[in-house]
């Protein structure tokens, strides 16, 4: 059986809340395991401040579905990645960057996306083990929006890693938790339906029994009078 690798996101230096929300949503859709963030002092507080900022800008509730891990600085992050055999893949156009179509992944991978304006600065590039870029087929735009780019990158990694495609119902992908809840709801409905049918059957049997008893308890004089009327 082929080993299934894991994907991660290093979310740092993205300026626009809407892009942050979109990237989080893409990370959830393409099964990235965890989101890493860089903080300074009061990291936990910073996390919730960031969450509050982007929760209304495109993540569509996926923030609650993701696991987060906060580092004090980039050095601490790099040490963690090395210790846990996670390759840092920078998303950047430039010399030495590999076309994403070739799936140049090496194993467990954390993706580091550049700032909307400056891209990955030298300090950030130093953290990376390799780089990928998304090919374009015109010169009409210099690059893609970082939120759009994240979806393309994560999708390629998901295919390379062999992630299982989620089931579809109607025009949406099923949420495993909601699917479980729906299954349990239908189970309870069947139980209640069974109870109702059993109750109705018992009531019907009781009514039939009462009718038999009523017939058996008809007074004798009433039977004689009915016989005379027939004559």
TrEMBL record:
UniProtKB keywords: Methyltransferase, Transferase
Keyword Zinc-finger part of the UniProt annotation: no
Segments of this protein annotated with the region Disordered: 172-231
Biased composition (Low complexity): 203-215
Stretches assigned to coiled coil: none
InterPro entries: Alpha/beta_knot_MTases, rRNA_Methyltransferase, SpoU_MeTrfase, tRNA_m1G_MTases_N
GO molecular function annotation: RNA binding; RNA methyltransferase activity
Domain tRNA/rRNA methyltransferase SpoU type: 8-154
Annotated GO biological process: methylation; RNA processing
Compositional bias of kind Basic and acidic residues: 172-195, 221-231
Name of the molecule in the record: tRNA/rRNA methyltransferase SpoU type domain-containing protein
């Amino acid at each position: 059986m082929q080993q299934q690798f894991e994907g991660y996101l290093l979310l740092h230096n993205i300026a626009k809340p809407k892009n942050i929300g979109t990237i989080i949503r893409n990370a959830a859709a393409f099964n990235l395991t965890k989101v890493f963030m860089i903080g300074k002092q009061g990291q936990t507080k910073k996390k919730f401040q960031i969450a509050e900022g982007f929760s209304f800008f495109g993540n569509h509730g996926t923030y609650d579905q993701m696991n987060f891990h906060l580092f004090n600085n980039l050095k601490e992050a790099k040490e963690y990645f090395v210790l846990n055999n996670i390759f840092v893949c920078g998303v950047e156009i430039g010399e030495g960057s590999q076309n994403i179509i070739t799936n140049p992944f090496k194993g467990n991978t954390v993706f580091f996306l550049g700032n909307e304006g400056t891209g990955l600065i030298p300090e950030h590039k130093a953290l990376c083990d390799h780089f990928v870029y998304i090919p374009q087929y015109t010169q009409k735009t210099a690059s893609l929006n970082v939120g759009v780019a994240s979806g393309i990158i994560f999708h390629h990694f998901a295919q390379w890693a062999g992630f299982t495609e989620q089931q579809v119902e109607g025009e949406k992908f099923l949420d495993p938790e909601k699917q479980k809840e729906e299954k349990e709801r239908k189970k309870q409905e069947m139980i209640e339906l069974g109870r109702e049918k059993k109750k109705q059957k018992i009531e019907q049997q009781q009514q039939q029994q009462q009718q038999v008893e009523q017939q058996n308890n008809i007074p004798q004089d009433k039977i004689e009078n009915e016989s005379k009327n027939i004559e």
